[in-house]
């Protein structure tokens, strides 16, 4: 029963997040729009969903590999991973965790980050859907 409830809540959250007239933030505007994030001492998470043109998946993966390797070396980056939908191999999700807002700002200021958008612009079907999440309280369990 708990599993069914969790799945239902997850599906409702996905449906809710897709509703409304939200405009995705494009390339170089991302860093500017995210500077208004909450308290700098909170952990931060970024989830970025992308759709890649089927014939460009290999090129996208090569570009993403550089981004992932460099990002994971950043001092404030806890984790930077890329996931591919097993049922639709053109759908990708970056999941990023940072120690605080300053670490996110440093990531957006990195040259490889600035170069990534133009590098993959013709490989994707549209702008990324980006969610920023602030961890109000971190609990060790």
At a glance:
This protein is of the alpha+beta class and 141 residues long. The protein has helices spanning 2-18, 29-34, 57-72, 101-109, 111-120, and strands at residues 43-51, 77-84, 91-98, 129-135.
Keywords:
141 residues, alpha+beta, Alpha-Beta Plaits, four-stranded antiparallel beta sheet, 5 helices, 4 strands, 23% strand, disordered N terminus
Unreliably modeled segments: 1-28
**How many strands?**
4
Q: Terminal Cα separation, in Å?
A: 24 Å
CATH architecture: 2-Layer Sandwich
Radius of gyration: 16 Å
State the secondary-structure class: alpha+beta
Give the biggest beta sheet. Answer: 4 strands, antiparallel
Report strand %: 15-25%
Strand order of the largest sheet: 2-3-1-4
Number of helices: 5
Structure, described:
The chain is α+β, with helices and mostly antiparallel strands. The protein has one domain (23-135): Alpha-Beta Plaits, CATH 3.30.70. It contains 5 helices and 4 strands. The protein has a 4-stranded antiparallel sheet, covered by helices on one side. A hairpin with a 6-residue loop joins strand 2 (77-84) and strand 3 (91-98). The longest helix has 17 residues, at 2-18. The radius of gyration is 16 Å and the shape is globular. 11% of the residues are buried. Residues 1-28 have low confidence and may be disordered.
List the helices and strands and how they pair.
Elements: H1 2-18, H2 29-34, E1 43-51, H3 57-72, E2 77-84, E3 91-98, H4 101-109, H5 111-120, E4 129-135
Antiparallel strand pairs: 1-3, 1-4, 2-3
